[in-house]
Design goal:
Blueprint (H helix, E strand, L loop, with lengths): L1 H16 L2 H6 L1 H14 L12 H8 L4 H4 L12 H7 L4 H4 L32 H17 L10 E2 L7 H4 L16 E7 L2 E12 L5 E7 L4 E5 L3 E3 L13 E6 L2 E12 L9 E5 L4 E4 L4 E3 L15 H12 L5 E2 L6 E6 L2 E11 L2 E6 L5 E5 L6 H19 L1
Antiparallel strand pairs: 1-12, 2-3, 2-6, 3-4, 3-8, 4-5, 7-8, 7-11, 8-9, 9-10, 13-14, 14-15, 15-16
Helix pairs in contact: 1-4
Length: 396
Amino acid sequence: MEVGKMETRMPEHLESGERVENNTKTETDEERDYDENMSDSPCESIPSTNVTPSKETQMEDGSDSLGGIKKAVVVLTRLPDYKISALRPPTPQQFYSEDDSLSSSDSDMQWEPDDDSSDSDFSLSNNKKKTVKHAKTGSTRSRNNNNVPETAPVIVSAAFAHCSTETTNIRPNLPEEELKVDMIVLARKRSMRWQRAKIVDIVTKEDGRLKYKVSYEEKGRSLVSGHHIAFETTPKLEQLYVGARVVVRCPDNKFRFRPGVLAELPSRKNRLRFLVFMDDHTPVYVGLPLFRLVCRPLENVLDDIPDCPHKSFMTQYLKDWPYPPLTQYRAGQSLNVEINGAQQRCEVELVDSSLIQVVFQDNQHKEWIHRGSMRLEHMTRFLEMKEVEEHSDDSD
């Protein structure tokens, strides 16, 4: 029976020998197709028989067929999905989930980056559970809310960056720079107005606190605390952290500054810029040369901000960092935004990282707003629902 089987196989090999020349010409294409099929095949192992052309030629000449056949067995093992994903290069869909538009503001505080540097809030993170929870909550709210005519945006709370240098919110333990008489600084003159001044005297109070008598370049003198003085020089990167107290140069007057809190460090997601929240809740992206560090910030920098909705927002923002909840909008989408105490209809004109530029329908007023701002009606509803859920979890 074994001899019969071998004899039966002989004609098949002889017939296949006529196709050897054609097979060798397309060997490269077949190997490429074979490699591609290998990765997609669900099988764990595939036997393969390769007959060399030289042996086939011998068979045509009448040589012993039994000695001319060689069988090679290749065992293939399919890699797990997570290993396959790790070996594949990242695709745009893995990192870019929204079509971020560029800022067209005339202000020197807005930098116009390249198109290919945009990023979204769906970047891969190590805390995916938290992201999914927020996104699911936001989408559920929009499905059940019949008062919103259009689809409400998804609320996400993804990891903002991927390394500690981009998310640090702890003040570095560095030696303080000494404040001296005749030193040029930026001193507070009004709540939202800081100006260049010179320290003319340092006064020690009875309780040991230091006060600084300054003389403004634009006339006038004042006695201020250390947390109302900022260095006149550009800060160093190692001095910066999320939550740092800073002042930002006004676009219309390079000698005037406005106080704020550093809210983002440079990363891929914000195109290597700093985000600062002004004390009046205005968000702005700036480069390093446009802001200065406050000399002696308070232990809690928010104590320097008057009690207002913005202070509550910043308290929650710093608490949530580096997972601040953000709404997802696209250009052309309509929404309600609070202005002068009332919700008004507006349209998204531009999306720039964590900010959106909206145009109010009534007067065509344009304004940059943070995508996590409580001025957004969608965000306000989301935070209300989140508070209810947290209260319910605590009661359980």
